[in-house]
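User: Fold this one for me? It's Cytochrome c biogenesis protein Ccs1.
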Amino acid sequence: MNKNFIWRFVKKLANLNFSIFVLSLIAFFCICGSIIEQDKSLSYYQINYPHYYLFILFLGFDHIFRTFYFALILIVFILSLITCTFSTQLPSLRNARRWKFLYSSCISKTSDYLLKNDSNSKYFFTSIVYSLMRINFFVFYKNNSLYSYKGLYGRVAPIFVHFSIIAVLLGSIVSFLFSFVVQEIVPQGEVFHLKNIINAGFYSYLPDDLVFRVDNFYINYNTNGSVKQFFSSLSLYIHNYIILHEQLIYVNKPLRFFSVTLYQTDWQIDVARINCGVNSNIQKKFFKVNINGQNCWLLNIPISKDNNIFFVVFNLDNNVLVCSSSGLILQEVNLTEKFYINNIAFTINSIVPSTGLQIKVDPGIVLVYFGFFIMIFSTFTSYISYSQVWIYINVKSLSFMGSTNRALLFFEQDMIYLNNIYSYHLLSRFKRINTLLV
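Assistant: Here's what I get for Cytochrome c biogenesis protein Ccs1.
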């Protein structure tokens, strides 16, 4: 009873319709995850989906690829592929490797590609064997019957496809359980640990012995003033010992250290260090605003009870605009340049930028890449045609039958080559025999 239940369960898992249904569910959830923005704040969904945000949050559509039911569907699909591979694909491969000898009584009933040559008894068995081997067929013989095939690797391709999909899905599950993403905004010259977690798997582990330092940050601009590229120079320490000193990263060139990857993602202007008056040094934080569609950073300094001045910076290469509280530009100054407001001396000693970094650990990415590599390899392998040839030889005739699973024109071309090689080899043997008889 238990064996019958297990066997019915395995057959259900390996069923093609069931696999297509599970794959359709995966495709549906992937489409939902592509349409609905992932990992946003509650206010984002309330603003953009005012009538559906409760439904989205309840079903976990805001982080659909990290939900338990999506992982469960992937596991079911993996089991379906595994059972199909071992119950259908591997037996089919073993069956393709078996020797299938046919005889004259059954050749005409099973023919996909049929050719029958009638001749006298002077057909030479070794000639046809030699001809088949010349066009890369494997040849087997039993009781005046020949069986040959080539292109068995084409029958292996579906198995590789299954294993590649399994590797990709397993990589996704490993990422779901063990990966984490950290985002940090770090001022130039500061040291930071991994602490601002964006998302993390149930079994992920943050390495607490890693310490990073932002040694330098700078920006390259285009001629029109837009940002061309921004760079961060980083140092890596483990247990207070420097491991990596000043590796430069930028967008599309991350820092990789074993399983940890640091990406350059953003930047901002953080603080200004200002000398005010005779012996007063202050440090004020900039705030990002948008003026006429252009991003800029500003800070305010009170110079009296009812009056403030504002410092405005558009990028790190520009000078600093000094504005009144009404928005009037008072003057434009350079760094370290002394200027006066209400007889008070000011000097902007430095402007400190911050770099935006994303730190990611994803152990499943190796499995995903490996799975796609196998899939690409199996795609090329699947174009190999699996061809079979049966030949039955008796005293008065040679009966021939061939079949292929694809590329019929190439198979017919192979058969033409076979006939030419066979005829040439046979004719050569006749000439040698005649020469010996003479």
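One thing worth pointing out: Residues 108-123 have pLDDT under 50 and may be disordered.
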